[in-house]
Design a protein that fits this description.
Layout: E1 15-16, H1 20-29, E2 31-34, E3 38-44, E4 50-55, H2 63-80, E5 89-95, H3 104-117
Parallel strand pairs: 1-4, 4-5
Antiparallel strand pairs: 2-3, 3-5
Catalytic activity: Endonucleolytic cleavage of RNA, removing 5'-extranucleotides from tRNA precursor
EC number: 3.1.26.5
InterPro entries: Ribosomal_Su5_D2-typ_SF, Ribsml_uS5_D2-typ_fold_subgr, RNase_P, RNase_P_CS
């Protein structure tokens, strides 16, 4: 169709944080926001991209429980950042004891609230 106005502005597609030094940078210099279902660490990063990291410690449970918590955090991030993914941030989501059991809608609300508290979303 030649009458289209061009591609719509698409949200930033997040990339993954995988290196230990990036997790440590978020922990030492990032803003923290704790909620019942998760802890968010947010640090300004490359202005052109959004990076996400996920971690769940052994205190949360065995490998099955930790993997479930991590999958739930990933999906919550996908939903919460779908429309308003702000470039220029490195975000680390840390699972808590409540992450695997918390109702999913509340987990997504926890993430949205933490993003606002840390100044990532307005």
């Amino acid at each position: 169709m030649s009458g289209s106005a061009g591609p719509a502005a698409s949200p930033v597609e997040p990339t993954r944080i995988r290196k230990r030094r990036d997790f440590l940078r978020a922990a030492s210099r990032g803003k923290r926001a704790a909620r019942p279902g998760l802890v968010l660490q947010a640090v300004p990063g490359d202005p052109a991209q959004l990076r996400l990291g996920f971690t769940v410690t052994k205190k949360v449970g065995n490998a099955v429980v930790r993997n479930r918590a991590r999958r739930r955090l990933k999906e919550a991030a996908r939903l919460a950042l779908r429309e308003a993914a702000p470039p220029g941030w490195d975000l680390v989501l840390i699972g808590r004891d409540a992450t695997p059991k918390r109702p999913f809608a509340l987990l997504v609300d926890d993430l949205r609230g933490a993003l606002r508290q840390a100044g990532v979303l307005r």
